[in-house]
Amino acid sequence: TTAPGRTVFDAVESEVRSYCRAWPVVFDRAEGSRIHDEQGRTYLDFFAGAGSLNYGHNNPVLKRALLDYIGRNGITHALDMSTTAKRAFLETFHSAVLEPRGLPYKVMFPGPTGTNAVEAALKLARKAKGREAVVSFTNAFHGMSLGSLAVTGNAFKRAGAGIPLVHTTPMPFDNYLNGRVPDFLWFERLLEDQGSGFNHPAAVIVETVQGEGGVNVARAEWLRGLADLCRRRDMLLIVDDVQMGCGRTGGFFSFEEAGIVPDIVTVSKSISGYGLPMALCLFKPELDLWEPGEHNGTFRGNNPAFVTATAALETYWRDGALREHTLVNGGRIERSLRELCAEHGRLGATYRGRGLVWGLEFTHKERAAAVCRKAFEHGLLIETSGPQDEVVKLLPPLTVTASELDEGLGILARAVRDTA
Ligand code: PMP
């Protein structure tokens, strides 16, 4: 038997230590924006399953739907086949998300994770254009499989591939060059220069806000410029909305605000709304090119996830209330971070974000780590991101209340002060 208080690392010697999250407690229960450890201590969770719990832990409406479904012996396996749960999800996704936005997408289930959605998107784009090259961006994160790693801009993670990651080229993300070079100048020049050895890409894959890369926010006009470049130069635009989709930036899709319509969109993390594995690859109808069986997998059709996803869409995406709530609360975080940075101006900390994803960048990763540790001691879960883990990332559930937000921001300010 396991003694309470021992972490899984201590208790089970076989636990592989490759994972970076090591809060020194064992978590047991959670609801809404709060999570409890087995000793009964409660924390505000502004990490929210790395963005997979936009509607909070054990959201009561989603829980009811799941319990009802299991109670009536609904299909619980995840093999990709027609089920009533899948049909209900597709109908609701169409009527609550795609139709009101005038989006033409076909929906496919690429496998259970965000990585699976990215793999499917890359494969489909390459097939559609008959070209191998794909462009991605500095500090991008798209997943840990070989295909998705090849478009990930993180040297440490790429090194883990163990083989050359080929057919991809990184380009500077928005603001990477601090405006010293006009947007896309390099890119245009390489596309024009037939002799440069730059292979014409099948696609460009981009996050509108780089979550893992340090909360780097692309401007709407930069995204519009990119979409325009892709159209003019016959490249497919893939928006990876795995972390920023499902309302994180306000709209259901993070690219809505820019008014662009990507050719392919990846969605995962919060689509089930209950932390259950589920992913979507959305693409324009002309990209419906796969034969049956050309891309398959046992866990492509997670029925319990369809049930909670449908309940989440029905509850939160039939009107604009959640979007409004997200934007108003995002404004609260922005004000708080602005004050914090002004107060601690000599540290040179900076902040940025959109909707309910915010980053507080320190000059050293040690400080960012110390802030997260202190915050944990004071009852707040937050994590670092960025190429050097120097950015403290705030990712509360979208359903967070204003008072929970103020409480968490108060703890963050205290943690910053305590580590000065
Ligand atoms: N794309 C983005 C933008 C992500 O943030 C992540 C996960 N952090 C992934 C892809 C990979 O998703 P998963 O971990 O579910 O495979």
Automatic annotation (TrEMBL):
Its cofactor is pyridoxal 5'-phosphate. It comes from the Bacteria. Pathway: Amine and polyamine biosynthesis; ectoine biosynthesis; L-ectoine from L-aspartate 4-semialdehyde: step 1/3. Keywords: Aminotransferase, Pyridoxal phosphate, Transferase. The keyword Amino-acid biosynthesis does not apply. InterPro entries: Aminotrans_3 (IPR005814), Aminotrans_3_PPA_site (IPR049704), Dat (IPR004637), Ectoine_EctB (IPR012773), PyrdxlP-dep_Trfase (IPR015424), PyrdxlP-dep_Trfase_major (IPR015421), PyrdxlP-dep_Trfase_small (IPR015422). SUPFAM superfamilies: PLP-dependent transferases. The keyword Transferase applies. One of its GO terms (biological process) is ectoine biosynthetic process. Its EC number is 2.6.1.76. GO terms for molecular function: diaminobutyrate-2-oxoglutarate transaminase activity; diaminobutyrate-pyruvate transaminase activity; pyridoxal phosphate binding. Signal peptide: none annotated. Belongs to the class-III pyridoxal-phosphate-dependent aminotransferase family. This is Diaminobutyrate--2-oxoglutarate transaminase. The gene is ectB.
